[in-house]
Amino acid sequence: MDDRRIRIRPMTLAxxxxxxxxxxxxxxxxxxxxxxxxYLDALSAAQDAERRRTRFAEGNxxxxxxxxxxxxxVVGWAAHGPYRDGEVRTGDAELYAVYLDPAHLGSGxxxxxxxxxxxxCSSYPRMFLWVLKENARARRFYERAGFRADxxxxxxxxxxxxxxxxxxxxELTG
Length: 174
Hints:
5 helices; 7-stranded mixed β-sheet
């Protein structure tokens, strides 16, 4: 892959529709067989984009949204910010999401987005993320990037079904 063709930049309001398409297609691709299919089938990129535009307009800058462009097309999205422990904010960072257009999986774009998010959070002591326990591909991706499961688990409710998530952590400073 030619890394010069990948550009990571801050997401803009104009990117919301494309980011929602990527997020919904990413869910439908990555979580097939892990999350109830009726739940995945009911996901709507248009509804997601509407919520995303509202959150983006109301944002206070705590959440950083990045997009990856390849040859001028937005093909990936990542979001990070302060770690969420319920309603309490800690002194750590959290990777909230990394999604790619499924056609670009394995191209290095996900690694570039993750590296940019980790780099932007280098002033935090640690970065956490949550991943579906049965999502072996994503778990390998994060493990190759230096994250490790720390033993914490919690259920994620999808379509009336609890789907277990595991927490990963990466030490960022000292």
